[in-house]
Design goal:
The chain contains 4 helices and no strands. With about 80 residues, it is mainly α. It has one domain. The longest helix has 18 residues. It starts with a helix and ends with a helix.
Length: about 80
């Protein structure tokens, strides 16, 4: 049983072969450095944000009346 476990112990192989471990690590690092610039990354990815447009009219109303009677109730209704 112990002999069977030692055959499949990957950590023991890497500990027993430090030069191979170092070369493998360097190869992986170099491959990563080579591949990193080739990754496709957009500086500003395309994103669409949902928008809504509301038009409210109250002919003859002052700006204060529009704010109090139209805009504020709309904001309260849409935010909740």
């Amino acid at each position: 049983m112990a002999d069977e476990q030692s055959r499949f112990n990957v950590s023991a192989w890497f500990i027993a072969h430090p030069i191979a471990t170092t070369l493998l690590t360097l190869a992986l690092v170099l491959l990563g450095l080579f591949a990193f610039p080739k990754l496709p990354v957009a500086p500003l990815p395309q994103a669409e944000f949902p928008t809504i447009q509301i038009t409210a009219r109250l002919p003859g109303a002052s700006p204060d009346t529009m704010a109090a009677a139209v805009a504020t109730p709309l904001e309260v209704e849409l935010s909740g």
